[in-house]
Amino acid sequence: MLESIRITGVGSYGHETSEIQGLTRFNFFFGRNGSGKSTLARVIQRPNDYPGCETVYTSPLAQPPEVLLYDATFVSRNVASSATLRGVFTLGEDNAELRTSIDSKRAEIENSINDNQQAEVKHKTLQAEIDELNGEIINRCWARRKELEQQWPSLFGELFRGQRKAKAGFFQEVLAQQNKTIATEADLQKLQTMAEVVFDNTASIQAPIRSPPVDRLRSDGIAKLLGEPLSTRANQPFSALIQELGNADWVGAGRAFHSQAKHEKCPFCQQPTPSAIRLALEAVFDNEYASSLAKLREATRDAAASVAEVQSWLEELDSNDSQLLKLISASQSLVLIGQTNVASLERKCASPGLVLDYESPDQATAELASSLQEENDRRLKQNQLIRDRSTQQNKVRDALWGHLLWLLKPDLDKHKKEIQGRAKGQENLRGSISTRTKAQGVLRRELKDLERKISTTAPTAQLINDILDSFGFNSFKVAQAEDAGDYRIVRPDGAAAAGTLSEGERTFIAFLYFYHLAIGGATATSIATPRIVVIDDPVSSLDSTVLHVVGRLVRKLMDHARSKTSPIEQVLVLTHNTYFFKDVTHRLDKEDPTYSYWVLQKRDARSTVRRVGTNPIRSTYTMLWTEVADESAPHVHVRNAMRRILEYYFYFLGGFNYQRLADRMTGSDQLVAETLLRWVNEGSHGFIDDDAYQDDDETTEHYRRVFKSIFENLGHGQHYTMMLGEAGRPSPRGSTGT
Description:
Layout: E1 2-7, E2 18-21, E3 26-31, H1 37-45, E4 54-57, E5 66-70, H2 72-78, E6 90-91, H3 96-151, H4 153-159, H5 167-178, H6 188-198, H7 220-227, H8 239-245, H9 248-260, H10 275-284, H11 287-316, H12 325-350, H13 362-387, H14 389-454, E7 455-456, H15 458-470, E8 477-480, E9 487-490, H16 503-519, E10 531-536, H17 544-562, E11 568-575, H18 578-584, E12 595-603, E13 606-612, H19 620-629, H20 635-653, H21 667-684, H22 697-713, H23 717-726
Parallel strand pairs: 3-11, 3-12, 5-10, 10-11
Antiparallel strand pairs: 1-2, 1-4, 6-7, 8-9, 12-13
């Protein structure tokens, strides 16, 4: 059975896709001329002729049924001026045993079809479960991706750069990665460091940093110079005094001033210095002392120069480079130690006799060397990554996918296990469906062989002629053609009549032929072929009587479709004629889910199709009842509707003068009825004096109850209940149904 239709780019449907979903066994389409009915019918019959259009059946695994379409093309093709009608084969009644065998084969085929339909329902159920499971794993994969993107934005942001796929697309990528990537936990911090290099197109090759001149800062001689005082000679006359006073530095400084003074006067008393004192002082500060002091001063200069060189080297480093922070810190520590030792040396030079501490730079030097080696190693690795950037980028991506798959592995394994069982069930169902479908083919061939033995075209011609005679079409009939099994349309004298038929006659006989073709077969072996019947506006140029006959035949086709032995699976009727639409849908069960109603509309040159809950065509009489039932309707509209209903139903149909309806009632009911009739006429004819008469919701509702009582008292309560039900309301407020 046809389940849904998709139309794109055909006729007035435009390039936006129109979808018709939820088709039932019996479908009634109403639309004005030009609304797209014929286009829809042609798409149903020949979807492959219209790219972008598609018809979907409830049994997609089976061969689609044949589509029989009645439309203007069918009429012109089959009732042409010189054409013969192909015979319509039906089963004869002369062989009860063969008919029993045929019925048995049909029932066997029907049971097999039902089994396949049940299997397909199970297949759909499993597919729904698979879809639900897929939705769950898709959401879990997406949530994990978002979690990683939040925790490691630069890393996984780079991995998914340019991949703006939706959830389902991302899940397909996960499945694809499973086939080529090993699920392994990764060191994301390490990968981020690597990614910062290989995905940075501005990163360039970096030269190694040279070692700073730190050797002279580690001189053991400096420690010795600071740790030992420079002393004078001990065996000289002034030596004991100087040592006792501990003022060798003061005396040494005084000698410098003394040597610079005129006439070698004492710098303190300004008296000429005796030569003996001068010689004695010179003996105290001999050449050895002078040599030691010179070494101290030289060491001070060297240390200061070395510190300056390290500072200069340090200034070459980029203080904004976060990778160099550790190296810069170690260098600064070493410079600080060097500066401390230089200060001590300078102090020693000023006071050679002082004993000062020496701060060892060994640890700071070792830390600097280690940091320098670490930075140069990093640069070496970075340079290698940059030189092989493309390969390294792929390694990072593979590692990230591996990590993601490692995180998802428990969920993916569980999902795979859940899906496999259901997929296996679907496979088994498809196998059983295929087996039964093949068996159906064998059964159909056997059925065709049986049908061929007793099938005939003669009864169809007689049935068509009987219908023509019963409705006064006596000027032509269907006769057997010279070709066995075919028909001709002839006049009573046997002359060909196809070319001289009126449009109404051509339409009627074409539909009669189509009707019998739908319940029979174009060949002796096609009687049981499953089919869908599509009827597109079959009432052109037909009078109301014949139109009613066509409506009855359509309903009989629907009766055939309800039969399990009929090849008709589904009926679709499309029309613009409101009378025909109402005739075909008359008294259909509103609650029956096999019926569905559709409306075609054309707006802004584009056709649309929508399903409606109830029959969209209502008679004027039904609409009057709708007005009465509508509590929100204006009071004057309600009065006018009541008058027209009473006039139509009791006067035109029942022969009662509705003005005298009250005479047929007694007691208080008669009084109420007279009041109602007077109120109805006052409200629907002429003007009303507002002071003389006022109506409101309470008044209108009161007369609704009186309106009902008229039908009940005259024995027409069932009609009242039926019409109010059709209008969409079981009974007026404050009353009960009959």
